[in-house]
Amino acid sequence: MRYRDGILKIEHGILPGLKEVLLRLTEVEDVRSIVPGRIYATRGRPGGALTVRVSAPTATGVKLIARRGSSVQEVFVVCDDRAAVEQVLRAAGVDPRRSRRR
Predict the structure, then answer these.
(1) Contacts of 78 (CB under 8 A, 6+ apart)
(2) Engineering a disulfide at 80: which of 30, 50, 88, 99 sits with its beta carbon 3.0 to 4.6 angstroms away?
């Protein structure tokens, strides 16, 4: 079984609508790898629009949090230029602002 499609690793499932956003990130020259994590269930209403936010910078890039309804998925983006990732997210119609901590 093949787990990698170029830069995008596909070992776990991907939230509906998220793969298109991640494929746009693969076009960024500074992005070296995209690793989606497992999907978690949270409290919330089923359905709803996909939201993707920059959660935190990491040593190798950024961590994104994708949410759709009651499902949440972490996505790790290995890159050199974090600002380029945020620009592509904006171009894809996603608000990349950092989520607020409670």
Answers:
(1) 31, 32, 33, 34, 35, 60, 61
(2) 30
73-87 pLDDT, tens digit per residue, is: 999 999 888 888 888
Residue for token pair 């409670």: 102
Give CA–CA dist 5/22, Å, rounded: 11
In angstroms, the CA 85 to CA 87 distance is: 5
Q: What residue segments make up the domains of the chain, in order of their start? A: 4-91
Task: Specify whether the CB–CB gap between 13 and 40 falls below 8 A.
Answer: no
**By CB neighbour count within 10 A (0-12 exposed, 13-18 middle, 19+ buried), where does 74 fall?**
middle
pLDDT value, residue 101 = 46
Residue bearing tokens 């994708």: 66
The pLDDT score that the predictor gives to residue 88 is: 78
